[in-house]
Specification:
Helix content is 40%, strand content 19%. By secondary structure, it is of the alpha/beta class. The protein has two domains: 199 residues, Bordetella uptake gene, domain 1 (D-Maltodextrin-Binding Protein, domain 2, 3-Layer(aba) Sandwich), CATH 3.40.190; 98 residues, D-Maltodextrin-Binding Protein, domain 2 (3-Layer(aba) Sandwich), CATH 3.40.190. The longest helix has 22 residues. InterPro entries: BUG (IPR005064), Bug_dom1 (IPR042100). Pfam families: TctC. This is Tripartite-type tricarboxylate transporter receptor subunit TctC. Keywords: Receptor, Signal.
């Protein structure tokens, strides 16, 4: 059930084969881009979304006449930045790096959002997906996920974990893990990935539940010990780290994704041009390596395929949010 509902890899198969191979050829758009493009980043600097957004913006800007400038507009679980993108002029000069949290989960957490992701935005280009990471400080008493489970069963509710925020896909992934393992952890929500990471490193929380891009730097530095990833297969970036499924919870498979969106009404020629340029970028060996180094897996799609993914998960995660009881006060 978990694999059928939550696996991004399975969704990609439904979408049909190799997305990169189906990417449209570049569309000639005479006047586009005629000026810098603003890429809204709806989270603070340093988090997984920000890291990938700046990588894409910088790489796109290396080829004239493209100039893409990242602009952080954080707040309210990423919905402030999405709101700004949704109400921007549909010209292709205001785009946003969205992800599962603020596009398919936030609408079920926040009341009266002034936009619908399936109606007020255009899915331009999928960039990458990543499993969620369960980790702990390198000097922690926990050496494996089995250690965490044993401790949680011995003293329910006493093991704490930090996440980027209440109701995020990362928090909900941890909630699904608790249910699968039959344990109870204590959730400590933070306002973003970095504060949670810092408290985990300091030992103020026992565990960190995070996106891989947000944690890779500290893993490489030897300060953070990865215990498990939530995807159905091991991460290319952390091949020695087991999955939750390998740890005894068969078919557990949860991932999140990142991609570019534009306001509804953006000309199809502009969407095609952006999609082709991003997909071309994702096919570059240097860019692939850079994304993998951050703990994410590059994955290109056509705009139509990305739209299908958005709409499918938008419906799926309504039930997950409701079952978790997560609320935004």
């Amino acid at each position: 059930m978990l694999r059928r509902q939550f696996s991004l890899a399975a969704t990609a198969l439904v979408l049909g084969g190799s997305a990169l191979a189906q990417s449209p050829a570049p569309v000639a758009t005479a006047a586009y881009p005629a000026k810098p493009i603003r890429m809204i980043v709806p989270f603070p600097p340093g988090g997984g979304t920000d890291i990938l957004a700046r990588l894409v913006a910088n790489k796109l800007s290396e080829q004239a006449p493209w100039t893409v400038v990242a602009d952080n507009k954080a707040g309210a679980g990423g919905t402030i930045g999405i709101s700004e993108a949704a109400k921007a002029a549909p010209t292709g000069y205001d785009i946003v790096m969205g992800q599962k949290d603020n596009l398919v989960i936030a609408p079920w957490l926040y009341k009266n959002l002034p936009w619908d992701p399936t109606k007020d935005l255009v899915a331009v280009a999928h960039v990458a997906y990543t499993p969620v990471l369960i980790a702990t400080a390198s000097n922690s008493r926990f050496k494996s996920l089995a250690d965490v489970i044993a401790a949680a069963r011995a003293a329910p509710g006493t093991i704490t974990y930090g996440s980027p925020g209440n109701g995020t896909s990362i928090h909900l992934s941890a909630d699904l893990f608790e249910k699968a393992a039959g344990i109870r952890l204590s959730h400590v929500p933070y306002k973003g990935s970095n504060p949670a990471l810092l408290d985990a490193l300091a030992g103020n929380v026992d565990l960190l539940v995070s996106s891989l891009p947000s944690a890779m730097g500290q893993i490489k530095a030897g300060k953070l010990r990865p215990l498990a990833v939530t995807s159905g297969k091991r991460s290319s970036s952390l091949p020695d780290v087991p999955t939750i499924a390998e740890s005894g919870y068969k078919d557990f498979d949860v991932s999140t994704w990142y991609g570019l969106f534009a306001p509804a009404g953006t000309p199809a020629s502009v969407v095609s041009s952006l999609n082709a340029r991003v997909n071309q970028l994702l096919g570059n060996a240097e860019v692939k390596a850079a994304i993998l180094a951050q703990g994410a897996e590059p994955q290109a799609m056509t705009s139509a395929q990305f739209t299908t993914l958005l709409k499918t998960e938008y419906v799926q995660w309504k039930g997950i949010v409701e079952a978790s009881g997560a609320k935004i006060e």
